[in-house]
Design brief:
The complex is a heterotrimer. By secondary structure, chain A is an alpha+beta fold. Chain A has one domain: Probable tRNA modification gtpase trme, domain 1 (Gyrase A, domain 2), CATH 3.30.1360.120. Chain A has 7 helices and 11 strands. A 6-stranded mixed sheet of chain A has the order 8-9-10-7-1-11. The termini of chain A are far apart. Chain B is of the alpha+beta class. Chain B folds into 6 domains: about 160 residues, Ubiquitin-like (UB roll), CATH 3.10.20; about 190 residues, FAD/NAD(P)-binding domain (3-Layer(bba) Sandwich), CATH 3.50.50.60; about 120 residues, FAD/NAD(P)-binding domain (3-Layer(bba) Sandwich); about 70 residues, Arc Repressor Mutant, subunit A, CATH 1.10.10; about 90 residues, Aminomethyltransferase beta-barrel domains (Alpha-Beta Plaits, 2-Layer Sandwich), CATH 3.30.70.1400; about 100 residues, Elongation Factor Tu (Ef-tu), domain 3. Chain B has 23 helices and 49 strands. In chain B, strands 8, 9, 12, 13, 14, 15 and 28 form a 7-stranded mixed sheet that branches. Chain C has a single domain, classed as Folate-binding superfamily (Folate-binding fold). Chain C has 1 helix and 6 strands, in the order βββαβββ. In chain C, the strands form 2 sheets. In chain C, strands 3-4-5-6 form a 4-stranded antiparallel sheet, with no helix packed on it. In chain C, strands 1-2 form a two-stranded antiparallel ribbon. In chain C, β5 and β6 form a beta hairpin. The longest helix of chain C is centred in the middle third of the chain and has 9 residues. The chains are: A alpha+beta, B alpha+beta, C mainly beta. Chains in contact: A-B, A-C, B-C. Chains A and B meet through α1, β2, β6, α6 and α7 of A and β8, β38 and α22 of B.
Chain lengths: ~220, ~1000, ~110
């Protein structure tokens, strides 16, 4: 039986989406901010300022939709290495895998870009019952905002209350960001992660530059 | 110029720093710490405006937000023009350029004043009302006159160089106003551990204490203020916002604060700084400590420059070291009014008299005045003022005990300044913004905040409590209450000692009688900004307007940019007297956001210019830009519209692109199409319910076109859905409809059919989609993949997983052009490189990139609809001539099925989509043209439908069109006429909308 | 601007994150084909417009994308309660007859 036949008899399609030639995985890839050439900006721009920005390009991002049964929870925990965070607006990390609560039946998983297909395949093999796991790596990118004024930039861009009393490290929110949207997670007191959609990433980058101007924006390579 | 009215010492200004400013082209000097108003008064500038209706000279009356007259135009350059700035709230900076806004050639010699009285007669009260009611034809005449006379500033004609900002804030306690009550409330809450924001419109905190010579704990108030502010600054969770006006109090304790970050520094904000910032605050509890505005009394000629409110006189002396005149007369109904005379005398200038409308006062302030030897005239009032550009004297007469009649002979006094106090009006504006109506209180002689559902506390002047000691106590109480309400523990706070002054009760009096009846007396102004007089209000009442809201609309009282802060209560009192009612019987007054005028820039924030609206880009956007594509906005997406070369016209380009696709191969960036991944064992069932056609038998590896309808049966989206695996589908939607379709699927899943096992995930951005279309597209694809893409192995409406240019791809053999087409989907990070590879491989076929416009022409040649262009939410599948896309046999009553069977939806004469060929093949019908069956029918002609799509087809060498025609599907071959606005009537023949390759052979090769 | 508690995210968010989706508890007829034109028209087009208490369907569109119900006073804009799909409101206007359908539907 050929591979294609095996695939077709499965109930869902899981396929590698990266070039088979491992050298091309990175050489052919262009992240959503590729055209900005952040590496050059990092060298030419400000070296000190209240806000730091960088893109974490080409990560693996997967959307998990599920109403997990106890059995599924156990299976998912062994697949991810970490239990699904069931508390609203929380996240859990183990190694390079982070799982963010998005809604009562949705989680966003991030991991290294070249491991996404492997995880999808293992879900396909091991997880029974109703769920969906969708690779959204090409449609999503990750920004990091840090520095003493990073929170001010977020306050200009979203209506979320980021005070550490109500927004501790590892909290996650999906919200509007300027006139686009973002999934925001606190990494530590002054560091925040933004997961944004590819098509909006240029707009959000322009917005962040504008909103950071009064604090000084440093691009980190 | 000398600052003739500046005291040698005293006040909160810095005399060592001299600032130069310009007013109406002339240079003057002031000091750091001045407002523009205090500097103008220091320089003896009397006239700051000409009045709106009568063109009378007007001077500065007040010292804060309530100022109605000194509304100036600021800006040193055209681009930095700012209208509507109250000089009393504008801090002075070096180089400030200001100008009056009404009256030319100048406010001092206003030509309008010559006709002022005529103008006044031409614009009686109710002018607007009557003008709108009566001959409409005269409006143009009136309008030009009003516009010319009524300028309260103008917008800049050039681009504003400044940036404006908005920031969202959250707090436990939002304190509005940093006077004694607000400061104590904020400190109490802060000590209790609350997150606090305290905002005040002035440049420094302290409120009324800044204007007075009062002592706290035996020391100047400024020392107490400094200690409180210093302590507040030590808390991480306290945000201090001076120069910040809380302009709006909205539902659920949402407040908007307008912070002026750099308006006090220069004409333009410093580099990288913002000029103004809007704070959007969500507060758990709000403490309104907004204080009170003093009411002027209404008396004849009370608008002559030199007539002021008494508290403002004290403020200019105590805070700015400016005495705005030489000889003062004070008229008061209460003890507070005495303070202006005391401060004036202490500044070394002449107090001609204190005229108290009461028979006596035994209060401490009156006693102080007596000790200073001031002349106190009781039981009397200033009934008239002499002078035009400055007060030269007043007429004083005794009143009866009720203050309604002049009872004795007139005494004249030579003065240049009149200070009046009619009591205080609590600043209840914010408490009204959410719909709460203020409540009249007889003991306060003013409106107090009404009942509200907001989590709101009040303290100090807003409660009619004007003594500092009481304000401090109320601030403490409010702070403690706020702590309790948010679940924090109470704290200790020792209030400073304040001297308690004894007082004699005020007299309730608003409108000073004249020896003549009001209608014949000299003008007694109620609302300065809109030139409303006591006589005008009486006329309104006589004409039958009995509710205060009607009186306001009839006279325009309170309609100025100051919202009648000084005049509204006096106006209500005049109306009440005229109607023989009490003030609360007359009605209540309501204020709406914003408290003071606000720059459009501050409302817009950063959402302007390039950031006005997000621009969404595909992974290949940069390539399109480099190729010189012009872009079309589709939703927020920027899609290549067409790719002109050299000197091509748009039509040249479209002809080239259209021919290239049908002759060889073209490539389209189709990434913007919405894509939804659908998984679950009930996915197929769900598709059957939301699409009008059947999905039960769609095999794995196959694609199908679907129409999506609302419950009313009307089409709102379409697209191709592929069966990826038995329980796995990929739906595509229109570019603009993607978000709506996803929410549509979710609402049915979450609310109607939660039992169906299915999940939806948007993958629009994840896949880059490039469509290669044309007879050479297979040859091109063969160059890029090892996969067998032959007709036998890869049939029309199949999809295949194949590696294209080294990247795993999903390739769909579907066609929107009617040509052999392949839609290549790759993970978007690889979209650009795969596109490049396709372009490179396509060179031998002269691959031509084409945009949305060519796509539109090509699909129209095939009669394919575009939802949103050929549909408008009022057409169903049968109207579109697409019965093949409806499956009435499906067991579940799918969305739209019942709707499209309603009586109205099955009429035979519904407008139906057909093809239209113009008789003259060279004429292209304008889209939107309305058709008629009989062009000679009398007007109004019965319209039978409009053109939805119309193009020049280079492939057919003629024009083609699609459009709706009543009963059109049964009228093939019949004529429709399109009368155009330019007089032409275009004749067209109804035909099938499939103009090219009706058997579909080209896409099946 | 309303401050709305999302029952799924379990915290308050600003109104701009939400969309109102009309009157709550409008249940799609189980057999639309059996409805008369009048019945279908009432399901499709007719909605209440009360001054006072109103039950509405909202979606946390920029957040968890879940729908939920809200009882709101249309006069004061006070939100009386938030409850999930399938639940019934506990705050009701006793002066008008209730026609809130039972079952799993909204």
């Amino acid at each position: 039986m050929s591979d294609a036949v095996v695939e077709n008899i499965k109930m869902k399609v899981v396929a590698n989406q990266l070039p088979e030639d491992s050298e091309k995985i990175h050489s052919m890839a262009e992240s959503p901010l590729h055209h900005v050439d952040l590496a050059s900006l990092a060298k030419q721009g400000l070296q000190e300022g209240g806000v730091h920005f960088c893109e974490k390009p080409l990560m693996g991002l997967l959307t998990l939709r599920c109403h997990p049964s106890a059995k599924q929870k156990t299976a998912i925990k062994s697949l991810l290495g970490v239990a699904l965070p069931m508390e609203p607006l929380t996240s859990a990390t183990k190694g390079d895998v982070t799982v963010r609560w998005i809604s009562p039946d949705e989680w966003l998983i991030t991991l290294s870009g070249d491991k996404a297909f492997d995880l999808e395949s293992r879900f396909q093999d091991k997880l029974e019952g109703h769920y969906s796991l969708v690779n959204i790596s090409g449609g999503t990118t990750v920004f990091e905002l840090s520095g003493k004024d990073a929170m001010n930039v977020l306050k200009k861009s979203t209506t979320i209350d980021f005070h550490s009393k109500v927004f501790p490290t590892d909290k996650v929110v999906s919200t509007l960001f300027a006139k686009s949207s973002a999934i925001i997670r606190r990494l530590d007191e002054q560091r925040f992660e933004l997961v944004v959609r590819r098509s909006f990433s240029d707009y959000i980058w322009l917005w962040i530059q504008d909103a950071s101007k009064e604090y000084g924006l440093v691009v980190d390579a | 110029m000398t600052q003739q009215n500046r005291l040698v010492s005293g006040g909160r200004i810095d005399r060592s720093e001299t600032l130069t400013f310009t007013y109406n082209g002339k240079k003057y000097q002031g000091h750091k710490g001045d407002t523009l108003a205090s500097a103008m008064l220091a320089n003896g500038i009397d006239v700051v405006a000409r009045s709106f209706k009568y063109s009378r000279p007007r001077g500065i009356i007040a010292s804060g937000a309530e100022e109605p007259n000194a509304v100036l135009q600021l800006g040193a350059t055209e681009a930095t023009q700012v209208p509507n700035v109250r000089a009393t709230q504008q801090e002075l900076f070096d180089g400030l350029v200001s100008a009056s806004t009404n009256g030319w050639p100048s406010v001092d010699t206003d030509v309008m004043s010559l006709v002022g009285k005529v103008g006044g007669k031409m614009m009686p009260p109710g002018f607007y009302y009557k003008t709108f009611m009566f001959p409409e034809s005269l409006w143009d005449t009136y309008e030009s006159m009003i516009r010319k006379a009524a300028g309260i500033g103008r917008a800049p004609k050039e681009h504003d160089p400044d940036t404006y900002d908005a920031i969202n804030q959250h707090c436990d306690v939002m304190v509005v106003g940093a006077g004694p009550a607000g400061l104590v409330a904020a400190l109490t809450a802060a000590r209790g551990g609350a997150r606090v924001i305290i905002a005040d419109e002035q440049n420094e905190f302290g409120g009324s204490l800044l204007d007075s010579s009062e002592q706290l704990d035996g020391k100047p108030a400024s020392e107490w203020i400094r200690s409180i502010v210093e302590e507040l600054s030590t808390f991480d969770d306290v945000l201090l916002l001076p120069r910040s006006t809380v302009n709006g109090y909205h539902d659920h304790n949402f407040l908007t604060i307008h912070e002026r970050c750099s308006d006090h520094l220069a004409d333009i904000a410093p580099v990288n700084s913002v000029r103004q910032r809007m704070h959007r605050v969500r507060a758990k509890w709000v403490v309104l400590a907004t204080g009170a505005h003093e009411r002027p009394l209404v008396y004849a000629n009370n608008d002559v420059p030199g007539c002021m409110i008494s508290g403002a006189v004290s403020a200019y002396i105590n805070r700015y070291g400016v005495v705005p005149g030489n000889e003062l007369v004070v008229m008061t109904t209460n003890d507070y009014g005495y303070q202006a005379a005391i401060d004036w005398a202490n500044a070394g200038r002449t107090v001609a008299a204190i005229v108290d409308t009461r028979t006596e006062s035994k209060g401490d302030r009156a006693e102080t005045a007596r000790q200073l030897g001031l002349n106190i005239i009781t039981g009397s009032a200033v009934i008239d003022v002499q002078g035009s550009k400055r007060v030269t004297g007043v007429s004083i007469a005794p009143l009866d005990e009720s203050g309604t009649k002049v009872t004795g002979s007139i005494t004249k006094l030579k003065v240049d300044t009149v200070a009046t106090s009619g009591g205080w009006s609590p600043v209840v504006h914010l408490s009204c913004h959410t719909g709460s109506r203020p409540v009249w209180d007889d003991s306060v002689v003013g409106f107090l905040p009404g009942p509200t559902i907001q989590k709101q506390l009040t303290a100090g002047g807003i409660n009619g409590q004007y003594e500092t000691s009481v304000a401090l106590q109320e601030g403490l109480d409010a702070g403690l209450q706020a702590l309790t309400n948010i679940g924090l523990e109470a704290v200790e706070l020792v209030l400073p000692r304040v001297e308690q002054l004894t007082m004699t009760a005020p007299m309730i009096l608003f409108h000073i009688p004249h020896i003549k009846p009001t209608s014949q007396a000299p003008k007694q102004f109620v609302d300065y900004q809109t030139d409303v007089t006591a006589a005008g209000i009486e006329i309104a009442c006589r004409e039958g307007f009995e509710a205060i809201e009607h009186v306001k609309r009839y006279t325009a009282m309170g309609f100025g940019t100051d919202q009648g802060k000084l005049g509204n209560i006096n106006g209500m009192a005049v109306a009440a007297k005229a109607l023989n009612k009490t003030i609360p019987e007359t009605g209540t007054t309501v204020f709406r956001p914003n408290y003071t005028p606000i720059a459009f820039g501050a409302i817009t924030g950063r959402h302007c210019g390039g950031l006005f609206e997000p621009e969404r880009y595909t992974a290949m956007h940069k390539w399109h830009v480099e190729q010189g594509a012009l872009f079309e906005d589709v939703g927020q997406w920027k899609r290549p519209w067409y790719y002109p070369k050299g000197n091509e016209t748009m039509q040249d380009t479209l002809n080239r692109e259209c021919l290239a696709v049908r002759d060889s191969v073209g490539i389209l960036d189709a990434s913007t199409l919405g894509k939804i991944d659908i998984q679950g064992k009930d996915a197929r069932e769900f598709l059957g319910r939301v699409y009008t056609n059947a999905w039960a038998k769609l095999g794995v590896g196959k694609c199908r076109y679907g129409l999506m309808a609302g419950e009313d049966g009307m089409i709102f989206d379409d697209g191709v859905t592929a069966c990826l695996a038995e329980n796995h589908f990929l739906m595509t939607t229109t570019t603009g409809g993607a978000a709506h379709v996803l929410e549509w699927l979710e609402i049915y899943h979450q609310t109607e059919w939660p039992e169906l096992e299915v999940y939806f995930t948007s993958v629009t951005d994840h896949w880059s989609t490039m469509t290669i279309s044309g007879p050479n597209s297979r040859k091109l694809l063969e160059k890029l993949t090892d996969y067998d893409v032959s007709k036998e192995n890869f049939a029309f409406m199949d999809w295949k997983a194949a590696t294209v240019a080294g990247v795993p791809a999903r390739v769909f053999r579907i066609s929107f052009t009617g040509e052999l087409s392949f839609e290549i989907n790759v993970q978007a990070n690889y979209g650009m490189q795969v596109w490049n590879a396709v372009i490179e491989a396509g060179k031998e076929f002269n691959i031509t990139p084409y945009g949305t416009e060519t796509m539109h022409v090509l699909r129209a040649e095939k009669g394919f609809i575009i939802v949103g262009q050929d549909t408008d939410g009022s057409v169903h599948a049968y109207d579109l001539g697409m019965p093949w896309a409806v499956s009435m046999q499906k067991p579940f009553s799918f969305i739209g099925k019942r709707g499209m069977q309603r009586e109205d939806c099955v009429r035979p004469d519904r407008k139906q989509l057909v093809g239209l060929k113009t008789i003259d093949p060279n004429v292209v019908l304008p889209e939107g043209s309305q058709g008629v069956f009989d062009p000679k029918a009398p007007i109004p002609m019965p319209l039978v439908g409009h053109i939805t799509s119309s193009y020049w087809s280079a492939n057919l060498n003629r024009s083609i069109a699609m459009g709706f025609v009543k009963g059109g599907l049964d009228k093939m071959g019949e004529k429709v006429f399109y009368p155009l606005a330019d007089g032409r009537v275009i004749e067209a023949e109804i035909c099938s909308p499939v103009f090219l390759d009706p058997k579909g052979e080209r896409q099946h090769v | 601007m309303l401050h709305i508690y999302c029952p799924h995210c379990a915290e308050y968010r600003e109104e701009e994150e939400f969309h109102a989706a009309g009157q709550a508890h409008i249940v799609r007829p189980l057999d639309p084909d059996a409805c008369t034109d009048k019945e279908w028209g009432e399901y499709l087009f007719f909605r209440k417009n009360p001054r006072g208490l109103h039950h509405e369907l909202w979606v946390h569109s920029a957040g968890c994308r879940k729908f939920f119900n809200m009882t709101r006073d249309t006069q004061t804009y006070e939100i009386k309660e938030i409850y999930k799909i399938g639940e019934k409101p506990s705050v009701v206007d006793s002066s008008v007859p209730q026609e809130i359908a039972s079952g799993a539907a909204s």
